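Session log. Operator J.P. requested a structure for one protein chain; no other inputs attached. Running the standard single-chain path with token output.
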Amino acid sequence: MSAAVSLSEAIGDVARAFEGEASIHVALNLGPSSTLARQIREGAGVDVFVSADEDQMDAVQQAGRIASGTRLPLLSNQLVIVAAAERAVALRSARDLSKPEFRRIATGDPAAIPVGVYAKRYLESQGLWSDVARKLVPTDGVRAALAAVEQGHADLAIVYRTDAATARRASVVFVVPRDQGPHIVYPAAVVTTGRNREGAMRFLAFLQSAAARAIFERAGFEVLVPKS
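Structure written below.
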């Protein structure tokens, strides 16, 4: 299966739980959603796709690669701003991003990478995009944006709350309020280019199970599918 890199730890745990229950091996392909979507559109043999946004799933569906009736909104997330752990940084609001001491702000490429797309939407909604765009350090994924801060290549990064929780050398300095931030959706679906449709359907069902819910919630995700 192919899944957004921001799901790395959680989807790995879910896959192992599924393997123990179903005795079906899950080979994980993790990466930026835009890259995974392109691979699937070009015919890569993928059974299940979990994207970090609706746009990349839309592109796969428009290419005729999604099995009818299998697409569903699985998870949600939240944007946060992080700084290097050793820096004494405090943000009272997102407007502080305009301050001159913050010269380099990393996030995913807003033209393609979901976290960057979400970050741009949020900054536009706050009237901050024109100020922040010139400071932006675009990366090829959310983990790369996080690494940019941890390695000293950026002053701040806009990432997902769940990725910030995995950081060893970065700390959250601002949490985007849910009622102000973009609606983040991780859709999941069975892909038509896969070789094991039965296994894919079983895994998609497991993603909606109580066992998977517990894993996702422990990692900080909000589960969108109703409790069974």
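Operator note: The chain has two domains: 2-76+185-223, 79-175.
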